Amino acid sequence: MNRKSQRNFDKVVKLTVLALGLGLVLLPIWYMIITSFKPQTMIFELPPRLWPQVWTLKNYIAALGKDKFGLYFLNSAKVAVISTLLTVLISSMLAFVFARLRFRGKETLFYIFLLGMMVPPVMLIIPQFIVAKWLNLFNHTGLILVYTAMNISMQTFLLRGVFENVPRDLEEAALIDGGSPWTIFWRIILPLSWPGISVVIINTFLYSWEEFAWANVAIKNSSQRTLPIAIALFQSEHLTEWGQVFAASLVALVPVLIIFIIFQRHFVQGISTTGLKG
Amino acid sequence: MIFLLPGLILFALFFLGPMAYSLRISFFEWKIVHPERSIFVGFENYQHALSDPIFQRAVLNTLAYTVITVVVKMILGLSVALLLNQQLPGRTFFRVAYYLPVITSWVIVSLLFEYMFNGQAGLVNYILKDFLHLIPKDILWFADEYLTLVPIILLDIWKGIGWAAIIFLAGLQAIPAELYEAARVDGADSTTQLRYITWPLLGPTTVFLVVVLVIGGLNAYVPFQLMTNGGDPLDLTHSVLTLMYEATFGRLDFGYGAAISYLLTGFVFVISLIELRLMRQRAD
Predict the structure, then answer these.
(1) Cβ-proximal residues to A49 (8 Å cutoff; 6+ apart), any chain
(2) Which tens digits make up the pLDDT trace of B126-185?
(3) Residues in A 60-89 with any Cβ partner in B closer than 8 A
(4) Which of A9, A69, B111, B252 has the most crowded Cβ, counting Cβ within 10 A?
(5) Is residue A73 domain-shared with residue A113, that is, in the same domain?
């Protein structure tokens, strides 16, 4: 074999491996999708089919019309969007301080914030429960504040790496022109850090959209439930109605998918700029 | 100062404060309705946990889960990243598609795996029994204390490969292309390049991944909770956190729950420090 066909052969092998792996990765998702279109009588059919004999939309109609699904969806959307915005704002302000300003005790403070990356969120549920009880926060505000607090450490750490990579010349020019730290932050640092911020948005939105443990203890009022809680409850109440469970689940995945598709363009580049590479 | 304040307040109120408070609770037989009537019991909650066979079992489950999932995710993640880092058609498509499981929610995919591993007519049993003829009869995955861990572990691997791959990919792209060119000029084949350029330069990425994945593994909660209904059968399939959750919000034994979470946090902290130390030695 000459070198060129050797290289082509290599390529084909690699592509085949990637495609086979992808098949395994996508199989569960595909199975969830087709199950959501199967009529209830075929949920436990033997053999299980990867292409339904009969397609039906009944599961979607039943699941979406049931149990205030729309309300739970909006609850989740509200909580996730506000948590994401708050986290981006607060973390980037903190990261700006740690990347640019100088004051005594800065390093210590930064390390205290890093603690948040080590401590398991679920371990804090007990005292957070008590704090929330004390402040009367068994509602969406409570969810938003806790999600933001739980995300601050990691995202500040990521953004500090991003901001440190922004060249300082621009700021010096702005300072000479009499720009305040606010101007530098809003006009220079943030716009130049877009890929890194995309990573933060994807991370935080995903976390707040799917968080289960805290929402499960903090939300008592059924009209305030978020989607993960609603879906888990629905499954435990309708044990065998998998078609409906997956119909609801797939609709619940749509917003995350949209966020990911919008921001993924910058994703790999963004991760590199966060300094994770070291 | 304005920049620091919102973050500080939030962090103190919902993170530092709770951590300190939780430490206090762990030394009491805590009364949630009347905290002032709580009884100080010293280290009793901690002793209780360490001598409780259910807790010991939960620790073993969590450790097995963590070790297996982290190792497999690192190996497969790196393999996928190495493939995606080459000039192949459809790279962007593959990158997005491999990442899909990562963005699905834990609750949803836990339920999905429960369905696929269903004892009677589940897809997995069908493939193993009727398609590959590997097993003589259907396996009741969730009725057995050990087999239950199989879908839980596979789920984590399935969901985590994409993330490991993306982080590795970012690390790979940060390696200057000139290094490979120089190596090629010197006649190094691709295995040699992998051994002497890629692997050493990926050091920091690997450290980061191991630390984060181990922390995540030790903190496994949702898949265990949903797939075992919190410890079924017979409380033998708990993870540390599902046990903590049950002690706290099931039996309202807040002190015991807090002690368990402090044991876990202490362990996570020590493990992370050891990992960082070991890896730094390797890097030198």
Answers:
(1) A34, A42
(2) 888 888 888 888 888 888 888 999 999 999 999 999 999 988 988 888 888 888 888 888
(3) 89
(4) B111
(5) yes
